[in-house]
Structure prediction request, 230 residues.
Amino acid sequence: MNAKAKKQVDEDRILALVVGDRDDVAAAREVASDSRTRARATEYAALARMLGSQRPGDAVRYDRFASRFGAMCLAATGAGLARVSWRHASEGAFVRDIERRWPDRPVVRDAASLAEARRQMQAYLAGELERFDVPVDLEGLPAFQRSVLEAVRQVPFGDVVPYGELARRLSRPRASRAVGNALGRNPVAIVVPCHRVVRGDGALGGYGGGVEFKKRLLALEGRQDALKAG
Prediction:
């Protein structure tokens, strides 16, 4: 066995011993008798403690991929999808935004964790999906905004509802402007379909992701009448 291979075997045995995957007396003796292996074991033990202190839901995981809207970014907590964005100029800008929102959590790129959300987003934008079936995390948002976004989730594909009507459904008939403001800060656009809310006079109204994107989403859902009114 050459020196490189011997070193790799040593590393594997030490790591297995530290994390408890193997009851290896020989490895324990090696750790105790050699300064290099003691140092490596100490490093591995510290890493194991750090990883063990992180619950699976603590990290915010994200992915960035090409879509019909351009570069699409998704981020999720352990509770569900928490961010949808195609407006960030770069991956770094999106990550910085996530770090500001969750300053006490690690932020990691993890395409595997976002694979289903990505699949559904691409299917929707291709006209092959009408309803998203992924959990959404709205925790941390003001109570009124959460109630508005939960109400919007009930608006079916291809339907539109005026801001005033949505306010009435929330028993806040005079809160049309507040409803609009809450929708304008929707962190999970498209999945929570705020593009389906329009003005009472039939005009499109605003959209946090840009009015042109609102038009494209309504066109995708077959609402040419709303486009003409806007």
Summary: Residues 84 and 189 are 6 Å apart (CA to CA). The chain is about 45% helix and 15% strand.
